[in-house]
Amino acid sequence: MPIESMHPIGVFDSGLGGLSVLRALRAELPNERFVYVADSGHAPYGERDDEYLIHRSGTISRWLQHHHQIKALVVACNTATAAAIHVLRAEHPALPIIGIEPALKPAVAKSKTGVIGVMATPSTLKSEKFQRLLASLQDQARFVLQPCPGLALAIEQFDAIKTGAACATFTRAMGTFGIQTGDIDTLVLGCTHYPFAEASLRSGTGHEVHYLEGGAPVARQTRRLLVKANTLLTIEPSNSGRIDFHSTGDSRTLALAAERWLGIADTVHDLEI
Ligand code: DGL
């Protein structure tokens, strides 16, 4: 087994949302170590332009490589993936880089009514990458696109009132949810923060609607790329399951979220980059 197998996997998001991807990564790859960066000091990303997103993604990726010698990078943010993944891949050609995109293809396979709701940040929905994906599937279903400005920030701030109000406004704007003809029966959560608002979203959509998030497919793809690179950890090292948390914002908020949502009570380090 190459020595590189012992190195951690880097994971980053604009903030807390990437924890929904980290949860899936830990389930799929229980032996691996992870370094998680929440760029909460610069969140939300969802209304930023490409130049800014490329700059932040590049800064975080370089820090993960130089300080942690990561063996793979997971961009646990739909917005950063859409704007910057091609630049990251060009800058680090030898590093396996896994991004996340709204789960439109699985939604087409899942939907019975053929009406699919997509909630995401304004930047993701406007991006060329998303528009290409949409165009490739447009003849197979009707997609109801809903930009959700402010929702990721409300979740980031643990603001239950704002989160509830935003979920109510956005689900109402999308139309009728359910399993009858013409109803939206499948909802794509196209931002990694949104799974943490599921209870509020359910108030607007009801319980019959199928929700799709991208964490599990990303975790499976990460495993595939590690196998291909021959860097998957096949033994359980003594520091297995360890996660190094770093936040460019309030580290206590990340600690609280990791404990509440993932049941992990690890130390969070302040990061100034
Ligand atoms: N969690 C991110 C995503 O998946 C971005 C949220 C934000 O910072 O606006 O798009």
Portion of residues in beta strands equals: 15-25%
| The level-1 CATH class of the largest domain | Alpha Beta
N-to-C span:
33 Å
Structural class category: alpha/beta
Structure overview:
The strands form 2 sheets. This protein has a 6-stranded parallel beta sheet, sandwiched between helices. Strands 6-5-7-8 form a 4-stranded parallel beta sheet, sandwiched between helices. It has 2 domains: 3-100 and 215-270, 3-Layer(aba) Sandwich (Rossmann fold); 104-212, Rossmann fold. It has 273 residues and is of the alpha/beta class. It is built from 11 helices and 10 strands. The structure holds D-glutamic acid. D-glutamic acid binds next to helix 3. D-glutamic acid binds at residues 13-15, 17, 43-46, 77-79, 121, 124, 152, 191-193.
Summarize the structure.
The chain is an alpha/beta fold and 273 residues long.
Keywords:
Rossmann fold; 4-stranded parallel beta sheet; binds D-glutamic acid; 273 residues; 6-stranded parallel beta sheet; alpha/beta; 10 strands
Blueprint of the fold:
Layout: E1 9-13, H1 19-28, E2 34-38, H2 50-68, E3 72-75, H3 78-91, E4 97-98, H4 104-110, E5 115-120, H5 122-126, H6 128-137, E6 142-147, H7 151-156, H8 160-174, E7 186-189, H9 198-205, E8 210-212, H10 215-229, E9 243-247, H11 251-262, E10 268-270
The site of D-glutamic acid has 17 residues, from helix 3.
